[in-house]
Each structure stands twice: as C-alpha cells, then as structure tokens.
Amino acid sequence: MDTLNKYRKIIEKVLLDYAAVPYAHGKFETEIIFDQQRDRYLLMNVGWDNGHRVHGCIIHIDIISEKIWIQRDGTENGIALDLEEAGIPKNRIVLGFREPELRPYTGYATV
Q: Which domains does the chain have, with CATH numbers?
C-alpha cells in the first residue's frame, strides 16, 4: 500500500474511533465525512443540546502535498498524538490551526 493510501486509512480509523465514543448529554449525532477524492476528513456534531442547536466541526483534517494538515482539533488530548500512535510520523503532520510562526516550536512539520 502506498503512503497516501496508508495515511487515508489511518485517518479514517482514528475518526471512526472518535465517532464511536458516546456523549453523556444532548441529542445529537456525530457525523463522519470522508472525501478521499479531495482528501478532506471531518468529524461533526449535529443536533440539539438543552434547547440549543449543535452544529460544529470537532475535527478537520486535509491531506495536502502528502502531509496531514490538522485544520481543527476539538479533542481533549490532541488528534496528532493518535495519528502518531497509528503510524504517521511527526514530520508528516502539520498543526494547521497553529499560527505559522509558532509551528516550528510544536515538534511537528511546519508546512
């Protein structure tokens, strides 16, 4: 399996694992969006919680130039750690939600 397909499978597995965790409150669904053609991957919450509409992106990952760009990370511990543990090297992960001038200090790829 080539590297790009390996990365896609890892991202999909990690997002499926996150989606399987039930929430303790609210009536909403976790939606998983995989667009392999454009290499975009999202985890969304949609529904209602205590009379308030819930519609938000928890995780947004893009694959750009064979690097994993984490555009949004609403997880508690950081999805980058999960991607690393699953086999994606740190130098292939970009914390896109961090300001470009701070990325060199993260230990991850800068671009």
A: 3-105 (3.30.310.110)
